[in-house]
Sequence to fold (346 residues):
Amino acid sequence: MIDLLGTAITAEDRGRLLHPATGGVILFSRNFASPQQLYRLVQEIHELRSPHLLIAVDQEGGRVQRFREGFTRLPAAAAFAQRCGSDLQAARRAAHEMGWLMAAELRAFGVDFSFAPVLDLNHGVSSVIGDRAFAAEADKVSQLAGAWMLGAREAGMVSVGKHFPGHGGVTADSHVDLPIDERGLDALIQQDLQPFIRLIDNGLEGIMPAHVIFAACDEQPAGFSRFWLQDVLRDRLRFQGVIFSDDLSMAAAGHAGCHGDRAQAALDAGCDMVLVCNDPAGADEVLERLRNYHDPVAQSRMIRLHGRPARRIEKLHEDRRWHHAVELAAQLAAQTNLALNLDSSI
Fold:
């Protein structure tokens, strides 16, 4: 999965998109100028290949929302528990509607999925996670993220939980450093792994591992570790969905060598698809390394990630549920706790 240079497909982009090793595109804020431009860009990407390339984005809400103009400003994951206080049922219903809203708006433009929800626990030490986490408690994260996932599924979109087995217990940011978590497997199973276990049991379609070393378990970062991806995720947790690497251009991924070596190591460990972002030369290196790579099992898993048919944005804006969800998003964005107006009919 690669990215694009700007708001339109360049000749350089086109060459990469047509490369046999390319299976998808991740879009960023630099690829978005307006809703109309986004729709044209997505259609152009779809027309290049059959079956079409997967198109993804990070549209979590809060600090991480790539598309803004013409899209509802989504609350950060932490807002559900913060705004609803002790009313967990209201928080679950709010998360469900925001998952639906996020997915319905993206599907209206042809985007297949968002890399969400974040399943990390907020242990209070990771600034890169922070309010991207639903809560500090595993049960609360499981319930709220599970509700978000079911809402997205109603709108025709799969979910990709991240960052397995948990990024919330380390201070270092894997974008710029290689975090090391010293906790043992039993502690991780009792805490950070619980949201992944719960959502896998409810059909979670994709998972992205963390560029974090869990030193008591394995010397490799989770995304390059057969222990985490095969022994734990596939064998112990029986996960049957797609495993995405986190961005191989992140500093923490440098542990595995050059970009080509990183990609090969991630695939050998058990990833189905690798991401190379914000580094055209690195993307070219990976594409050439994987020119003859073929994994029919991974391909069969990825076919399931294509979004279901959806209404265009104009029709979505006529939907009473969309109007309720937009109003709810505004309430969640408020700075004080509210008795949220959650219509029982939605």
Summary: Residues 338-346 have pLDDT under 50 and may be disordered. The chain has one domain: 11-332. The CA atoms of residues 6 and 31 lie 5 Å apart. The domain at 11-332 is CATH 3.20.20.300 (TIM Barrel).
